[in-house]
Amino acid sequence: MEGEARECGAFHAAIAREIERHGRPFQRPILLLSGGETTVSIRGNGKGGRNTEFLLSFAANISGSQAIFALAADTDGIDGSEDNAGAFADGQTIERLLADGLRAEALLENNDAWSGFAKIGDLFMCGPTGTNVNDFRAILVL
Questions:
Q1: Gap between the Cα atoms of 94 and 116, Å rounded
Q2: pTM
Q3: pLDDT of the chain along its 142 residues, tens only?
Q4: b/e per residue 108-139 (b: at least 16 CB within 10 A)
Q5: From residue 45, how far is each of 87, 89, 112 by CA, in Å?
Q6: What is the DSSP letter of 91?
Q7: Does residue 51 contact residue 79 with C-beta atoms inside 8 Å?
């Protein structure tokens, strides 16, 4: 996958929701995998990288789901400007952000997905891996 991270996140969420709600194009349970490196158009001055931005957009589009879980990470162990590889998200991510006074839309506008995931404890920290193959996304639909 290539393109704007937040748009790719919304696209992946649409596929996961279609599977969850209608059992197409695949039956559940299923693990969807994708790779490729997205881009982020810098609009703000927040912290993060393409994987956390992808995942925050994804989370906003699966909000309320009880059956969708995701990881987005960079295989080199560093996502953008910070020391995390990526983050985890599920259907309650947006609810957890709201409980901490954070809105996904505002975080995305400021390119600050890292701060949101850090606040709710959902960053994926593995340290440098010594290899850079691709960005990696795993989406589980139960």
A1: 9
A2: 0.96
A3: 899 999 999 999 999 999 999 999 999 999 999 999 999 999 999 999 999 999 999 999 999 999 999 999 999 999 988 999 999 999 999 999 999 999 999 999 999 999 999 999 999 999 999 888 899 999 999 9
A4: beebbbbbbbbbbebbbeeeeeeeeeebbbeb
A5: 19, 23, 7
A6: T
A7: yes
